[in-house]
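Page 42, continued from yesterday. The earlier attempt failed because a stray header line got pasted into the input along with the sequence. Redoing it now with the clean sequence only.
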Amino acid sequence: EVQLVESGGALVQPGGSLRLSCAASGFAFRNSAMGWFRQTPGAGREFVAAINWSGGATYYAGSVKGRFTISRDNAKNMLYLQMNSLQPEDTAVYHCATQYTFGGELADFGSWGQGTQVTVSS
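This time it went through. Structure tokens are written below.
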């Protein structure tokens, strides 16, 4: 059974940074493309970032490119999202997810965790 457990969400001031983590188990993590999406009550789901199985290729939404960095540690079955220069519009629940195929579409995602809340506010 695929299990994905996110952590690291918090309340942060605009301009601040956070690092989200995702612990994966129950599947061949090292062979799987992975990604992050975020969800808000008003905007729904939004693709954030993806990374291929080796970490050698990444893909970002235009709204986070240059500010967020996705990475992975296949030895630890961990996925990360480093978020810098956070803005109020980044406020959302962030989910890590498996991908059927490496790509930048919500439809590429398969299973996901319950998410971690990120709130950007002064």
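Notes: The two ends are 40 Å apart (CA to CA).
Reminder to self: strip header lines before submitting.
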